[in-house]
Design goal:
26% of the residues lie in helices and 32% in strands. It has helices at 2-21, 95-110, 173-188, and strands spanning 41-43, 50-51, 53-55, 59-62, 73-77, 82-90, 116-125, 131-139, 143-150, 155-163, 191-192. The strands form three sheets. A seven-stranded antiparallel sheet has the order 4-5-6-10-9-8-7, sandwiched between helices. The protein is globular and about 45 Å long.
Length: 200
Amino acid sequence: MKKVFYRIAVIFVLVTIVSCEREYLPKPLGYNRLVLPEPAYHTLPDTLPYTFEYSKHAKLLADTSWISEKFWIEIYYPELKANIHVTYKKILNNEQLLKEFLNDAYVLTSKHQIKAYAIDEVITRNPKGHTAVVVELDGEVPSQMQFTITDSTKNFLRGALYFNTKVQNDSLKPAIEYMKKDIMHLINTFDWRKKTEVSR
């Protein structure tokens, strides 16, 4: 009886030692798989002094922030929790105003330098002949892409991409790339409306 008890005790001790040496690794934090919709577009309503094609998967909303101005809009993607914030300013043939708007855009972009490990700026011209400055930001930044378009005399437009989520940007990469392509489509279809084309 003592031998049986001794064997059971030895086995129990060995099992305890082996089980204590086993390393348990926590499961990695998982994210829902993003289902990216097939790109499809339609045109902005003619109540704005500018026009471009935006995604049929997005909602066009008025900017309701306390600093919002006329013709400021939000293009919201409910499935991706992404938002393109679009602001518009009249230049009124005022060169000083244009410099101020360009400087403001630069300052807003440079605020992300602390968290960005790369900021790429490209100047491009769309099929309508309009020049746009496009800035892509890499890293854990709140805005991954920003752009400005101006005719230098009458109109100035700025856009910025944001995601309303706490998910890190490396996990959001497919959605970020999807949104960047949508923004480039926006830029490539962008045009200023003539005053007679804008309905009140």
